[in-house]
Task: structure prediction
Amino acid sequence: AQKITQTQPGMFVQEKEAVTLDCTYDTSDPSYGLFWYKQPSSGEMIFLIYQGSYDQQNATEGRYSLNFQKARKSANLVISASQLGDSAMYFCAMRLYGNNRLAFGKGNQVVVIP
Amino acid sequence: DTGVSQNPRHKITKRGQNVTFRCDPISEHNRLYWYRQTLGQGPEFLTYFQNEAQLEKSRLLSDRFSAERPKGSFSTLEIQRTEQGDSAMYLCASSLQQTVPNEKLFFGSGTQLSVL
Result:
């Protein structure tokens, strides 16, 4: 079984500043993928970034980067140059190879202030 | 391509009634998922279809729940004899099969169910 932990309280971030969202995970399986999704108030989950357990480099997608520390089982999301539209819930998720299920954490609330 | 569409957006029902939700995935996406999200939690997997075949069901999907995907296109999720504990956001997602585990899911905006 896999477990995702997101424990940060809600965060206020100044526009144009960077923010780091913490995610730790627990699995005994060596083969897995890690995801971050954004959920604005409209409800849909929006894919942001993916990191495979065997990837040698940290993933980056535009203003999003993933700080992957495999030994510590952490996959923190960094959002650079925050924008007002970044205000949302952010969910970390994991999927084991050969498994059809995404396991999500409880999410982090981010509010970007001008 | 209008994305994943879910209807209705909101549903209020009385305990004991049956409800049905519909999901229209992105056309040509052959994989379809249902997730349930309760307040303050992340989504939880319910079931998965590849084309018209339902290949996996979570134990969360009690016998009061049934999902179908006729002809591998849209999908319906029916809840019979609703209970207050069924109140949640029901999310549908679709994808075009690619190498797992980096499959990117496209989610709809969900159906918010309130059971009174």
Summary: Chain B touches chain A at residues 3-4, 33, 35, 40-45, 48, 55-56, 58, 89, 91, 93, 100-110, 112 (CB under 8 Å).
